[in-house]
Design a protein that fits this description.
alpha/beta; six-stranded mixed β-sheet; 4 helices; disordered N terminus
Length: 191
């Protein structure tokens, strides 16, 4: 279960910290924003691209798992989200995609690659910037912690092979970017 320490707003508008609650027919999707931002109706469901800052995105789509059940659409979701972000004004050189189809090993969705890419982007983002981190794949809730499952996730070693969602929250909170968005499309109980 997700806990929030600050105010939140459900739906559009401007907020300090928020969560978009989705209907029961889409149970795995969680959308969280940290910082103050305004939804842009002209650009659809994505936040407006920063006018004075840079827009960054780390998009992860995992279909092929070494030890968990494979998924079907996560990679396609990552490709579609990337196309929409670029169409909305994100610079191509600021959108980093990690997926099973990557030809370069550093762009595959392993634990090390995902953590490294998120850390690098969040370190480079500055005040005035917008950062989006998106994960589509398996998630699990074990020992009172929620984990994102990269391609090399092992159920018998969550800390060593999975990414604690709380760590992603903490890194986003520490990031200097003005607008921060975390988009997670993952179950938490069916790897």
């Amino acid at each position: 279960h997700l806990a929030f320490r600050d105010r939140f707003i459900v739906g559009g508008g401007t907020g300090v910290l928020g969560v978009c609650v989705v209907p029961r027919w889409l149970p795995g999707l969680v959308l969280i924003w940290i910082g103050t931002f305004t939804w842009s109706t002209a650009r659809g469901a994505f936040p407006t691209v920063m006018q004075n800052g840079h827009s960054w995105a780390v998009i992860v789509g995992v279909n092929d798992y070494a030890e968990l059940e494979d998924l079907t659409y996560c990679q396609k979701d990552a490709v579609a989200l990337t196309a929409q972000l670029v169409k909305a004004g994100f610079p191509k050189d600021g959108v980093f995609v990690l997926s099973d189809a990557a030809t370069d090993a550093k762009d595959r969705p392993s634990k090390v690659n995902v953590e490294t890419r998120i850390r690098n982007v969040l370190q480079v983002a500055a005040a005035g910037d917008l950062v989006l981190v998106s994960f589509s794949g398996h998630g699990v809730f074990l020992d009172d912690k929620t984990y994102l499952c990269p391609s090399d996730a092992r159920l018998n070693d969550p800390p060593g092979s999975m990414i604690p969602l709380q760590e992603v929250y903490s890194r986003l909170e520490e990031c200097a970017a003005t607008r921060k968005l975390l988009w997670v499309d993952a179950c938490r109980d069916d790897p």
